[in-house]
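Sequence in, structure out. Go.
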Amino acid sequence: MTTTAPNGVSYTVPGLGTDAADRVVALLQDRLHALNDLALTLKHIHWNVIGPHFIAVHTMLDPQVESVRGMVDDVAERIATLGGAPLGTPGALVAQRSWDDYSIGRDDAIAHLGALDLVYSGVVSDHRAAIAETEELDPVTQDLLIAQAGDLEQYQWFVRAHLENADGTLRSAGANSETDAARRA
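Output:
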């Protein structure tokens, strides 16, 4: 029984070489980890928000969780379609991610949104980088990532609407850590 992904695909979709498929699978595996992490982080925030904005944030996050879980499934299925083996275990996520765990526990809803804005910035930036890299490699995967990026950007806008000052600036602007963003928000 195989428990880890092979070092390379042995087959892929027609018209895509195995070297290109290997690269796309690696990009998608990173996106799979990021989206799984995002879904868990959103649910963590959902459970740990408090304060006068509790209900607005609490109910705003559940549809985002469900949508991101759908993205996870789409990315995993694309990996399999390309001949790869998606790794969706918690251990693989923790071992292979390049970011730290979400750092805010029970806190004010707006503080969480300040931190979540940074999380979304990282996920969206990395999705955009994967979009750029797949332009020549695999336009089908690129289309998948473009659609997801549009949704992720909209969810970040929902978050930022709670952080925006009347002059259009964000309360958490300039923060370089989740803790700093939460404090500034």
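Check: The first helix runs from residue 18 to 48. DSSP finds six helices and two strands in the chain.
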